[in-house]
Amino acid sequence: MSSIVNVLALEAQRDKSRMLELWNSIYRLVCKLANAHFANSDPGRRRVYDTSDLIQQAYLALHDAVRLFNPRRGSFTTLLTYCIRKQFSIVSGDRSGKWQPEDYAASLDARIADDAEVTYSDMLADARAEFESDTIERMFDEERIVG
Fold first, then answer.
1. What are phi and psi of 130, to 5 degrees?
2. Environment class of residue 58 by beta-carbon count within 10 Å: exposed (0-12), middle (13-18) or buried (19+)?
3. pLDDT tens, position by position, 76-101
4. What domains are there in the chain, each with its CATH number?
5. Disulfide engineering: 54 pairs with which of 34, 64, 78, 129, CB 3.0-4.6 Å?
6. Which residues lie closer than 8 Å to 13 by C-beta, 6 or more apart?
7. CA torsion, points 118, 124, 125, 126, in degrees to nearest 10?
């Protein structure tokens, strides 16, 4: 199967009308990967997507794999499997070790330390509050106008 798929992938690079034939030849692999990913995914995330969503994402990954395929660098099915798994991880929210700012975000209602009474929101300046220097400056301006 691998050599046939490699040939179809090369043909699909030149002629996009061959994509459907390539898709049909790798569809069983796609279903196997989608079912395995869905079965091993976080149960809470399963409400957000299902296997049909994963199969659609696999079709997008197929286009990436066809674009990137170079037969001197390896098998098309290996590249395709990598592209599909990468696409599945995006759909399922698995960032696989990439640093994300949300990972380090804290609620403004969280305490600064476990034993502290102060929260992060307590440390923020109140935009509506007047600063003492503004109040004093306004008093001087009023005295100049009046006096």
1. -90, 140
2. buried
3. 999 999 999 999 888 777 655 554 55
4. 2-92 (1.10.1740), 106-147 (no CATH)
5. 34
6. 66, 67, 69
7. -80
